[in-house]
Amino acid sequence: MRSVFRILLAAKLTALLAGCGFQLQGAVAVPAEMQRTYVDGVDTYSPFYRRLTQSLDAAGVELVDSAAQATAVFSVLYDDTGQRVLSVSTRNTPTEFEVYYTIRYALASDSQSLLEQQDLTLTRDYTYDETLVLGKSREEELLRDAIVDDLVRIVLRQISTL
Prior knowledge:
alpha/beta
């Protein structure tokens, strides 16, 4: 009796999830023009550039070494990251910081623009405690990594809609 109940419950949950449009996140679908892509970047050692090339490779895009070999060119025109002070205490010491990451990019195929030049900036803020310098430094690194992941996700989502 219990096994029948479990089967019925699983079937109802499956129908409910299918009915609401839920889908598991799979690999990114890239347009056919991006079969062989050259990623041109201002800083090939930046976290965004590295994470983007890894994600494109995982999506089945063949990354080539020059624009002449490519069917599409993804250009990272600007790649900058840093932090700003958001607030200070009465003793004039920082108490809150904002971490930001800004990119400018475009995508072209056979001298035809697939994605016009786009600017994208994401920010995260965190509180700062001068007695926890090492922990706050690590928190800043984790926030920057999370921002890069979000940027790559946004860019890949834009590409998948082409």
